[in-house]
Amino acid sequence: MNWTAIGAIYKFEMARTFRSIWQSVVSPVVSTSLYFVVFGAAIGSRIETVEGVQYGAFIVPGLMMLQMLMQSVTNAALGIYFPKFIGTIYELLSAPVSTKEIVIGYVGAAATKSMMIGLIILATAALFVDLQIQHPFAMLAFMVLTCFSFSLLGFIIGIWAGNFEQLNLIPMLVITPLVFLGGAFYSISMLPEAWQTIALFNPVVYLVSGFRWSFFGISDVSVGISLAAIAVFLVVCLVVINAIFRSGWKIRT
Questions:
Q1: 48 CB contacts (<8 Å, ≥6 apart)?
Q2: Which of 54, 104, 160, 205 is the most buried (most CB within 10 A)?
Q3: Predicted confidence (pLDDT) at residue 13 exceeds the cutoff of 70
Q4: What is the spatial distance between Cα 135 and Cα 141, in angstroms, rounded to a whole number?
Q5: In this structure, are residues 154 and 75 in contact, taking their beta carbons and an 8 Å threshold?
Q6: Which tens digit of pLDDT belongs to each residue from 54-69?
Q7: pLDDT value of position 88
Q8: How many Cβ atoms sit within 10 Å of the Cβ of residue 33?
């Protein structure tokens, strides 16, 4: 394994974050604070508790998941798209760096940035509500699996995208609606029975449910099923990326 090459890619991507810290870090934190003001104050005054948890605290895992999914996809997509856009991807492909090392460098940096933002949002949330995390190691495990899985998805999107509009298409039109409809701000048990069944087809439900269980010990679906869903998604993304590099689709063509 060429750790020097992996470290170079990783450091370059992390440095890009700190060069645009207002957009990369400050903006998600401000957005999350606004969610707390709107949902926590406005709706929280009408819905005091959900399944025994104060509503303001109940939405924290959903807000963290929303930002981590968006940041994972966006950071990884932009990370691999930009070398394609300016043509330096060919220098990278001709260097003595394997495809596995390229993926580890870009996806590792994107996942790290997303976890950093998730932890910052957690610290911000603690200023607004009283938070208790029942299963901290499970919480970290869900964060790591989710950020790496969706960074892999972002990497695929970055390879697929032909322009900046396509780069933002899936995060804005697919990821965001799935998170909002995936129980980020409510329990799916509060929905009518028919909608509960439909919601189970939304993969984000399993992410939010498992993540919320690590905080409060409550979940809409089994924690084992949540972990299995993330693992399957991770494997599917790895298989797709392997196929892309083998064929050279959108990279050498």
A1: 54, 55
A2: 205
A3: yes
A4: 10
A5: yes
A6: 888 888 888 888 888 8
A7: 78
A8: 17
